[in-house]
Amino acid sequence: MEKDYIHKIYPRKFKRNDFWSQIKRTINGIPVSDKEIDMIVNQIIIQLELQNEDNVLDLGCGNAALSSRLFGFINRYIGVDFSEYLIEIANEYFRPNESVRYIKSDICSYVTKAANSEEFSKVLCYGAMAYLSRNDVVATVQTLRDRFKNVERIYFGNIPNKSKAKEFFLNRKIYKYSLDDPQSAIGVWWDPDDIVTVMKNIGFTPLISHMHESFYSSSYRFDLTLLPN
After folding, report:
1. Which of 71, 110, 196, 213 has its CA 20 to 30 A from that of 125?
2. Is the dihedral of CA 204, 138, 23, 111 positive or negative?
3. What span, in angstroms and rounded, lies between the C-alpha atoms of 130 and 119?
4. Parallel, antiparallel, or unpaired: how do β-strands 153-160 and 122-126 relate?
5. What region, left, alpha or beta, does residue 188 occupy, with left being phi > 0 and alpha being psi -120 to 50 degrees?
6. CA angle (58 as vertex; 116, 140 as ends), nearest 5
7. How many other CB atoms are there within 10 angstroms of residue 95's CB atom?
8. DSSP state letters, the chain
9. What sequence ranges are listed for the domain Methyltransferase (predicted)?
10. Are 228 and 152 in contact (CB under 8 A)?
């Protein structure tokens, strides 16, 4: 399979307006309901404590179908994604005005080179963390700590929970799997206790949270909010 198939090739299988299928926000191949999407949006707003004056950086924004539901709550938004096709979709369907902008780049490169790093107050990364290696996650968070001086909160959503992996795969009769492959369908699984330790060592206060039990992936995923010390 071609490298980064899930993010660069897979989305092209669907119609240009089949937004949730493009970014795999699905259950057994069927796009999730508006209720599920609203739950995600509410969680983002709560965990980032979004305010009208916030300038938000979205790392791994995909086609921005999800993030677009935040635009009315914030001041400015920049979405970053390495998929040329998904950025194309975002620009076509989800750029209502000049306060919204998209940049084609991988996450690590962007946070390292961004010239406007001090303009952001909040950072969002929903569903993309699992597709970075553990080393890249650490490097990215360290760079956010060092360069993005005005960021008050960082929110990583929908992280696969390593302690739930065995049950997850057994329930699906999958017996061979990797928990450390960012190229796999689900990506890298993290243990909540381990990630708390890692983030504390970088200089953040980490807060673990979970979606309501009725949320479709709550049984095997968790969320992480970071507050700079």
Report:
1. 213
2. positive
3. 26
4. parallel
5. beta
6. 75
7. 17
8. --TTHHHHTGGGGS-TT-HHHHTT-EETTEEPPHHHHHHHHHHHHHHHT--TT-EEEEET-TTSTTGGGGGGG-SEEEEEES-HHHHHHHHHHS--STTEEEEE--HHHHHHH-TTGGG-SEEEEES-GGGS-HHHHHHHHHHHHHH-TT--EEEEEEEEBGGGHHHHHHHTT-----SS-TTSSS---B-HHHHHHHHHHHTEEEEEE---TTSTTTTTEEEEEEEE-
9. 56-146
10. yes
For the chain, how far is it from start to end, CA to CA, in angstroms? 42
- Torsion angle (degrees, nearest 10) of CA 45, 47, 48, 49: 70
| Boundaries of every domain in the chain | 5-228
Residues 165, 175: Cα–Cα separation, whole Å: 11
The type of residue at 186 is I
Give the total residue count for the chain. 229
Contact 70, 57 (CB under 8 A): no
Of residues 169, 178, 181, 180, the one with CA closest to residue 219: 169
Residue type, 74: I
pLDDT digits (tens, 9 = 90+) for 98-154: 999 999 999 999 999 999 999 999 999 999 999 999 999 999 999 999 999 999 999
At 172, the amino acid letter reads R
CA distance 110 to 85: 18
Half-sphere exposure in the Cβ direction for 225 (13 Å, CA): 17
